[in-house]
Structure formats: structure tokens, C-alpha cells
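Support case: guanosine-5'-diphosphate-alpha-D-mannose complex. Customer-provided input:
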Amino acid sequence: MPNKAFITGVTGQDGAYLSQLLLNKGYEVYGLVRRLSTPNYWRLEELGIRDKVCILEGDMTDSHSVNSIVKSIRPLEVYNLAAQSFVATSWQQPVLTTEVNALGTLNVLNAVKLYSPEARFYQASTSEMYGNSNINNTQDEHTPLHPRSPYAISKLAAHWFTINYRESFGMFACSGILFNHESPLRGIEFVTRKITDGVARIKCGLSDHIALGNLDAKRDWGFAGDYVEAMWLMLQQEQPDDFVISTGINHSIRDFLDAAFSAVGISNWEPYIRQDPRFMRPAELHELCGKNSKAQEKLGWRPKVAFDELVRMMVEADLKRIEKESTAKTRYEPSLVAGH
Ligand code: NAP
Ligand code: GDD
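Agent response - structure generated as follows:
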């Protein structure tokens, strides 16, 4: 019998790469998808797996749908990836962010506890939980947590619910504290993809600038395809545990601009950048840099794709999309929304 995995957030960046990984390992993959007026399957389609994932309609905030799904499939592995994941939006929609990220996680944990108690559970926790807290400019599993956005606070609640269900009910529940991970499938509102899409448009003569906020923040950026392997590895261990997943190297937004513009042969990017206060945050995280030694030791995991390779991969994918768009004469992704 193939192993059954249930993924919430299956249409997102990580959900798509994780589905691909699990399908390649012979799993049956079931994904929770919320009803939208326009279905959002572009990532699963780009990976060529849209028809291989079994889509089940429900919503993180609707315990009835979550319970029915878990009861009907009785998965052995549950990956809880669904979230309102954009930090900037969390100040505008703090209640929704908390309902989806914190209470939604509680809905999934309760459904597993009631209807599939043997299942192993993965929670998508985040380096945002650290805020500006660090030890010698790095963060690991022991660094104090000090969230600085409604998003980070909602994720901190979900993180502790996961640990609490492990300690209270003996569930095999793990929390992956993942640092930023990117890919050609990244949402266009996140700074990396906003830059690579903008650079590709500038290169093709379709735009003359990119509007950005704080260029000095530093993030530890890895490749999403590498990070979903770590999620799977966490659920294959003898004991449930929590792990930092990161590259251990950070870069500023300026470094990302250097790499992205140089991928299209532009060495001086300053004339193409406009700083726009709409993209500044009420409370910023200045520097994230994860220490991944526990994951290296216990999971045998290490990142494979380096920063320059990641940036180049994203720029090349956006150049290809623009070529395709100009042939089809339509843009198939939403344009940028103010504040994103
Ligand atoms: P993403 O691309 O924004 O995907 C989020 C997914 O959640 C989408 O499938 C979305 O569905 C779904 N979703 C949102 N609200 C929902 C609801 N009410 N009911 C059901 N599904 C809902 O995020 P990602 O980058 O793949 O990240 C995956 C997870 O890891 C998230 O929990 C994120 O917070 C966490 N994380 C990400 C990073 C990172 O750098 N990427 C780092 C640390 C932690 P639609 O397609 O319908 O919008
Ligand atoms: N999005 C965006 N847009 N960010 C900008 C911009 C802009 O125009 N200009 C500068 N930035 C800066 C932000 O202020 C932040 O310091 C940094 O770029 C990264 O922003 P995002 O790419 O939006 O990601 P994030 O770090 O806030 O959050 C991502 O990583 C977290 C893990 O640390 C998301 O994937 C979260 O879901 C995830 O938990």
C-alpha cells in the first residue's frame, strides 16, 4: 500500500515542490485547496503534477472540512503548510492571519488527533519567530523568540501548539523552523521574485524600474526544492523534534540586486531602483542567519543550491515566462498590488 500524505497549502510554493518529492517517492498525495473564484494551480501545472495530486476542497478556518478530509483519507503523514504567509499583509489583516495560521493549525492538529492519531505531523514554522533576537548574529533552536509582526505571532502560536500536542498527547509532531526559501515558483509579492520578475522585464524593455522598500535587511535565502527534503526527513526520524533549516549564509537585498542584475549583464542597478515608503514595514527584521548544525547532524540534510545559482535560476525562469507571455500576449500572474 502506498503511503498517504496530506498537504495543506498544496497550491503554494512549498506545497508544489513537496508534492513532487512525495510523488517521486511513491506516495499518494492529497491536498487541501480552498475555493477561489479563479483556481490557482499554476505551480502544480509548471511541475507537471496537477493531475497526480488528489485535490480536496476545504479551508483551514473551517474545522468541519478539515475533520472530514482527515477522517476520509486517514493519512500517515500530514504536512501543514497552508498560511497567510506574506508578512506585510499581516499588519493589514491581523485577524485573518491569526485565524488561518494559528487557529487553522489547531484545526489540523485536532483533526489528526481525533481521526488519524498515528499520523506524523509537520508544522511550517518560521525564522520570523526570532524577530531581531540573535546569538552572535545567528539563530538556532535555542535562540529566544521575539516575534515582530502579526504573522510571526500567529506562527509562534502554531509552533507552540505543535510542541504542546507532542508533549500532551504523544503525537509525532515536528516543527521545522525554516529560513527564507525561494524558487521560480515563489509568489511575486516576495522581494526575491519581485526583483527577478522586475529585472527580466527591464531586460526585455517592458519596464524601466523596480519600486522597493528597505534595501539593507539581510535574509538567509535557500532553494525551496532543498527545503522540502528536510520536511520529509523530519517525519522519517525515530523521534519527533524541531529543526532549524537554513543555509547559514545571509545576504542583503542589495546583494540580491547585484546578483539578479548581473545575471542579465547589468552591473550598475541603481538607476533602475526607486525606493518607495509603501514597501517599508512598521517593524523590520534586520538580519536573519540560521545555524543548521542540528539538521546536518541528525537529519543528514544540507542545502545544495548556492545563492548565486538560485538567483540565476529565478531570473532565467522569469525571462522564459516573459517570452511565453509575449507570444501568448497575456500575463498570467496578477500584477503587483500596492503595499506588496
Ligand atoms: P505560499 O506560497 O504563500 O502558500 C501558502 C498556501 O496556503 C497556498 O496554497 C494557499 O492557498 C494556502 N492557504 C492560504 N490560506 C488558506 C486557507 N484559509 N485555507 C486553505 N489554504 C490556504 O507559502 P510557501 O512559501 O509555500 O510557504 C509554505 C509554509 O511555510 C507557509 O506556512 C509559510 O508561512 C511557511 N514558511 C515559508 C517560508 C518561505 O521562505 N517560503 C519560510 C518559513 C516558513 P491559495 O493558493 O488558495 O492562496
Ligand atoms: N516583499 C517585499 N517587497 N519585501 C521588501 C521590499 C518589497 O518591495 N523591499 C524590501 N523588502 C524587504 C522586507 O522589508 C524584508 O526585510 C525582506 O525584503 C524580505 O521580505 P519578503 O521577501 O517579503 O520575505 P519575509 O522575510 O518578510 O518573509 C518570508 O520569509 C519568512 C521566513 O523568514 C515569507 O516567506 C514568510 O512566510 C516566511 O515565514
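Confidence is low (pLDDT under 50) at residues 334-340.

Case will auto-close in a few days if no follow-up is received.
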